[in-house]
Amino acid sequence: MASFPVLTYLLLATIIVTFVNFYFWFRADKQKAFNWLIFFLNIYLFIHAVFVFTVRHFFTENIYFNTVAPFVLVYGPLLYIAIALIRRNTISKKTVYTHLAMPIIIWLACIVLIVFYGEGQVYYWQYNIILAILTPISLIGYAAFGVKSILSTDSSLKRYKLMVMPATLLLIFMSLISIIVPIYGEKLLRNAEATDIISMMIYSLMFATSVLIFKYKTSIIFNEDDVHKTSSLETEKPLVSDTKYERSTLTLAQLELYQQKLTDFTTKNQPYLDATLSLAKLAKMLRMPSHHLTQVLSTRLNQSFYTYINGFRIEHAIKLLAEDTELSMTEVAMVSGFSSKVSFYRQFKNFKGCTPAVYKSQFFEK
For residue 114, is it left (φ>0), alpha (ψ between -120 and 50) or beta? Predict the structure, then answer.
């Protein structure tokens, strides 16, 4: 099995990239649930790649370990949890346990098989039958959910499409494999080249996922660094004098058009729920120059960028407080787009003159 070097290179590359990703995670904001999910996904990819590499090169007499290990059953639930966190930045423990229960049970059964029974026993065949039935059901179900989510008009998912799409493609491909292998299993086993090609495609997608995690983590880290450097801007800044824009070529009509575009986009797409949102990022979404956006905010709305965005975040938080959900104040802060509970409390007091807890007790608690 070690005769196909490309597979070895792909596995080693995945191991290296996932290992590097750990460094960036330790610099990330650990209050965000989505960052924790990415961390666990990275760990799982790392373990998966190490496991396959080790079995292929050091346990060739027990190569069946790779076929019975139910790694693929976890990727579907992780995709579901990721999409839920992207949409609301929170998910109940009950939902997590519900989606991970079946993979955990199968993993326990797999460990029992490897440790106490081995290949060829009655338990081995029973386990494989159950795995052959559950795998396509799980993969197809979660892949369909991923496709539906990608095709939805949810603005929060659009920002993470480059993360969700490859994960969904991985599930779709694994779904096809889970159907093809039981049907043509014996023919595939006799054709080593076909088996290696299938393995290469799976490991390529694993490597691509690890690279996307790397890209996501590095972009988040650098974005968060920028946010911390400019955190002092979150409080109201003195407005720039209109004389700064005397040389602007924008007419009053153009300013009004930009203002309407900004208002419509912000209200419909809720970009303020992204804690890493910056002026440059919002300008790119609006397809307008950053200095034009700054001018609209200053001259038309008489606000700084952070004051404008935090105003929407506060109103979103108030809606959550009014719903009397079981969310903690930290969760309300994260869901509303704030980078921390401290920032949330500071901005809430700036806008409303009291803390969120006091505001909730005064207006929403009987």
Answer: alpha
Range of the domain at 124: 5-227
Cβ-proximal residues to 294 (8 Å cutoff; 6+ apart), any chain? 279, 305
Are 72 and 120 part of one and the same domain?
yes
pLDDT higher than threshold 60 for residue 227? no
State the DSSP string of 289-354. -HHHHHHIIIIIS---HHHHHHHHHHHHHHHHHHTT-S--HHHHHHHTT-S-HHHHHHHHHHHHSS
CA distance 74 to 337: 28
What's the N-to-C CA distance of the chain in angstroms?
69
> In this structure, what CATH number is given to the domain that contains residue 285?
1.10.10.60
Distance CA(124)–CA(305), nearest Å, equals: 62
Q: What are phi and psi of 278, to 5 degrees?
A: -125, 170
Does this model's pTM top 0.85? Answer: no
Is 332 a residue whose pLDDT tops 80? yes
Confirm if 310 and 301 have CB atoms less than 8 A apart: no
